[in-house]
C-alpha cells in the first residue's frame, strides 16, 4: 500500500505526467524521445545479437559438434542445427551488432545530446528524424524474419561475399531479405546523417563557433559525413548483388565476365569507414567523460578535432587491407598497408591526449569514468593489434583467423561497447532525471571488464596458432583456449543483465539527479534533468 | 565492499587465465608457446620475423600507455587529501604534442620498411620450382602435379588427430618433397575458398575464374595440417588437407607409385629432379 503511494508520488515528479501511448511515439518529432527510442532499439538488437554469440560460443566450447548435427525434439517439433545454421548465427550476430546495435546506440546518444550541446531546441529536420528512426526497427525485423523463410537466414557472413551469396549457392529469399534490410538500414543512416550535418552546421546557438563545440558533437559531425559518403556505396554493392541474384546481371559472376573480387572492393569501401562510424562517436564520449571526471579541460582540443578528421579521411583510403589475400598487386598492397599504419598516428594522438587530460587532474571513479578508463586501456590493445593485422606479410598468416576476431572485438567491444557504456552511465541522469545505481554499475563494470578479456584475449593465440574463423568445429589442439573463451562469453553475456536491471530500475527508482550531478561544463548540464520540451527557455548565448 | 570483492575475484581470474595460457601446448608434435606454429619454410620464417619486429614495437608502446594510465589512476585519484581544487588547468603543451606526433610517424616508417621487404620476398615467385595446382570446391580439395602427369590420392583412412572428436574425417594429402620450391596455382570451381597452411606461412584465396600464386619451401619432412580459410558454406570447417612433406627418396617412390596407378611409365629420378628444380 505504502509502496504504491510512493510510486504515485514519483509519477508526479515526471515532467510529462500524461501517459504517452504508441501513437505518441510513432509520431513524435522530439529529438529526445527519438534518441531514447534509438537506444531502446539498440538494446533489443544487442540482446538478440548477443544470444546468437552465445550459440556460437556454446558450439565452440569443445572440439566436435555440440549443438550441430544432433537432432532433438520439443513436443511435436524436431529441430536439427546444420552447419548452415552455424553460419547464419555468425552472419546475423555481426549484422545485428553492427547495423542494429552499435550504430543506433551512438545515433541515439547523438540524437539526444547533439542539439542540447550546441544550444539548439531540436534537430534541423524533426520529421525526417522520426522517419529515419522508424525505418530502423522494421529493417531489423525484416532480417530477423529471414530465419523463418525457406532456406533460412543468410549464412555467408555479414560480408556476404559472392559467389556464396549468388542465387546458385544461397537460393532462398533470406539473402534478398538481408539485402533489402541493408538498404533500409542504410536509408535510415543516410537520412540521419544529413540531419546531423545540417543541425550541427546551422542550428548552433549564437557564439557557439565550430571550434567551441564539445568533442562529442565534432565526432558525431565527422561520423555523419562518413555515413553520407560511404553508405550509398554499400547500397550500390548490395544492389548489384540483388540484380545478380534476381535479374540475370553478372557484376560478380565470373561466368558472365564479372568478378567476385569487385564486390569485396566496393563492400569494404563502405565497411572500413563503417568501423570508424562505430568508433569515432566513442572517442567523442570518452573525451567528455574523462575531462569531466578529471576536473580538467580536455588536453589538446584542437589536435583532438584534427585527429578525428584525419582518422576519417585516412579511413576512407585503406579498404583493401581487408583483402590482402585476394591476389592483389604487391604495390597496391604496399600502399594500403602504409596508409593503414598512418592511421595509428592520429589514433595515438588521441590516446596520449586522454592520458594528458588525466595527468594532474583529480580523478573521480564513477562507473562512467571506470568504463572510460577501461576503454583507453583496452582499445589501445585493439589499436596495436590492428597495426599487426595491417602488415600485409603478417596478414597472410592471420587473415581470416581468430586473431582478426580478437582484434575486431577489442575494437567493437573494448572500443564501441565500453564507450557506449561510459556514455550511458554519464548521460542517463540527464535523460531520465535519475542516477543509475553506482553499486550495481560498479559490479557491472568489473564483471564486464574481466569477462571480456577472458573471452577475447585468448582468441589472439588461437589465431596465431592458425585456427580459422567461422568454423563450427576445429582441430582438437585448440580445445582448452576455446573453452576459456566460451566461459568468458557466457559470463559476459550474463553480466549484461545487470545493465538492463540497473537501467530500468533506476529510471523509476533511482536517486533524483538534479541538473548537474557530475559537475560537467557542457551545455546539457545547464538545463534541468530531463531537459524541458525544447531544451532551453531561451536560446543560450555562448561567450 | 562489493566492489572490493569483485576486484579480488577479478585479479584471481586474470591470474588463472595467465596460468592457463602459459601452459605449453602440444602442437604438430612440438611444444608450442602460443605463437605461430613452428615455421617450416623460409616464407613462414620471414613472416614470423616481421611479426616479431612489429609485435615488440607494439608491446613497448602498449606497456608505455598502460603504465602511464595505471600511474595516473593511482597518483591522481581523488582522496581526502586531494580535493577537486588540486586539479591543474593546463590544456596544451605544443612541444610535447609535436614529439608524440613525430615519433609515431617514424615508427610507422620503420614498420613499413620492414613489412615492405618481407612483402616483396613473399610475393616474388621463385624461378625454379615445381608447380602444384590446388583446386578447391565445396567441400574438398584436388591437388594436381601437371609436370609429373599425376594427381593427389584419395584419403584411405580417417585422419588420426582430426577424427578424435567423434567425427570421422578423411583428409587428402598434398604430397611435396622436402627442400624444393613448391609453386602453388590456386583456384576454385564454385565459391571462394582459401588455401591456408599455417606452418608453411601460406594463405591465398581460391577464387573461381582466377588463378592465384603462392610458394613455399618445406624444410622438414612430416605432416602439416592445412585448412580452408574463407567461408564457403555449411561444411566450411570440414575442408582440411594434410601437407605431407617427404624426403627425396620417399618422394620419388611416391611419384612413381602414382604414375603407375595412373597407367603411366615410372619416371627416372633425374627427370623428377628436373621438374622439382633441384638435385636429388
H/E series of chain B = HEEHHEEEEEEEEEEHH
Number of strands of chain B: 12
CATH C-level class of the largest domain in chain B is: Mainly Beta
Oligomer: heterodimer
Rough outline of chain A: globular
Which consecutive residue ranges of chain A, at least 5 long each, have pLDDT under 50? Answer: 1-17
Roughly what percent helix of chain A? Answer: 55-70%
Q: Low-confidence segments of chain B, ≥5 residues, pLDDT <50?
A: 18-32
Radius of gyration of chain A: 23 Å
Gross CATH architecture of chain A: Up-down Bundle
Q: What's the shape of chain B?
A: elongated
**Helix-strand category of chain A:** mainly alpha
What features would you describe in this structure?
The complex is a heterodimer of chains A (543) and B (280). With 543 residues, chain A is mostly helical. Chain A has a single domain, classed as Cytochrome c oxidase-like, subunit I domain (Cytochrome C Oxidase, Chain A, Up-down Bundle). Chain A has 16 helices and two strands. A two-stranded antiparallel sheet of chain A has the order 1-2. Chain A is globular and about 65 Å long. The model of chain A is unreliable at 1-17 (pLDDT under 50). In chain B, the strands form three sheets. In chain B, strands 5-4-3-7-10 form a five-stranded mixed β-sheet. In chain B, helix 2 packs antiparallel against helix 3 (94-123). Chain B contains five helices and twelve strands. The N and C termini of chain B lie far apart (73 Å). Chain B is elongated, with a radius of gyration of 26 Å. The longest helix of chain B is centred in the first third of the chain and has 34 residues, at 42-75. In chain B, strand 8 (193-197) and strand 9 (202-206) form a beta hairpin. Chain B has two domains: 26-77 and 93-124, Orthogonal Bundle (Helix Hairpins); 130-276, Cupredoxins -  blue copper proteins (Immunoglobulin-like, Sandwich), CATH 2.60.40.420. Classes of the chains: A mainly alpha (543), B alpha+beta (280).
